[in-house]
């Protein structure tokens, strides 16, 4: 049975009615509104506001605004005059039912029409986009064809000129020799002193260039980020880890621009991470605040989530500790030697939070994951053994209780 809203307010002028309905803490996405010329319904379970309007209104020009905890309606009147009441004063249930059914039917028709118009608009936009794309592709093909035609024409012209030049040279060689005038400053048939006669069809060979001087080129190799040998490393995972780290550093720039009111050092996530040193002094809430601000600047830095999880553990915010440790483990992928220690710390912190919540099976899984990363850690091994003993003891007690019953 819905709870009817009665603490609404309304005002009117000669031309319009304004209604304000409190939403009782409901979010805008949870509010369902049905509005026609004679009926208005605002449904946000378990509350319901329903109004059978005193006179018809212009539904096409009506507006509704939802926000700040209220829904405000502006309903233009079809007849310009003041109403005696906002709603009908009749108690005729049959008439109200008829008005309600007509309103719902009209509302469904309106929604169907809007959906159809939206689909037609999307179809028209798709057609326009396809047509524009085809036009651009055609223009591109035409432009490439013009370039090809121009290049072909240029090549044809150059080839014709070369053929004409070859033909002229051949004709000049095939002409009969006549008496040629002697060169100026000498007698006929004389040659310049020191010039070697060149036979017909031969060309003087150019002197080859001298050999280049020798030299040494210094080559230096970029050192590998990971110390493991290449044959033993997992190169794709390591490259993926380096790429994620680079993206995290780039994201700091855009986030810092949104927080211009902070001091220069406060816009540096590494500085804020160091401010988390108040964890060592026992100011766990201060450390949480520093890590939270650093995460606003760089939400891709797993160390911030892991360190904040440790602070939440101290403050007994166990569910938040699990969330932060899980986020740190999510960001610490792919698993490579460079982030092994960080993965082990995050797993232990999440396992500790599970154990504090008496979820020992989940906590043991995290401790065993940390042991697989650091199998030589005796403290981790001892903690995991204690958790197993607790689980086995609980199971034994349950079996004893079942046997006694």
Give a quick rundown of the structure.
With 405 residues, the protein is an alpha+beta fold.
Keywords:
405 residues, alpha+beta, Immunoglobulin-like, Serine Threonine Protein Phosphatase 5, Tetratricopeptide repeat, four-stranded mixed β-sheet, four-stranded antiparallel β-sheet, 9 helices, 10% strand
Describe, in plain words, how this protein is organized in 3D.
Keywords: Cell projection, Cytoplasm, Neurogenesis, Nucleus, Repeat, TPR repeat. Pfam families: CS. One of its GO terms (molecular function) is nuclear estrogen receptor binding. The chain has about 400 residues and is α+β, with helices and mostly antiparallel strands. It folds into 3 domains: about 90 residues, Immunoglobulin-like, CATH 2.60.40; about 50 residues; about 170 residues, Serine Threonine Protein Phosphatase 5, Tetratricopeptide repeat (Alpha Horseshoe), CATH 1.25.40. The chain is about 50% helix and about 10% strand. It has 9 helices and 8 strands. The strands form 2 sheets. A 4-stranded mixed β-sheet has the order 1-6-5-4, covered by helices on one side. Strands 2-3-8-7 form a 4-stranded antiparallel β-sheet, with no helix packed on it. Strand 5 and strand 6 form a beta hairpin. The longest helix has about 80 residues. It starts with a strand and ends with a helix.
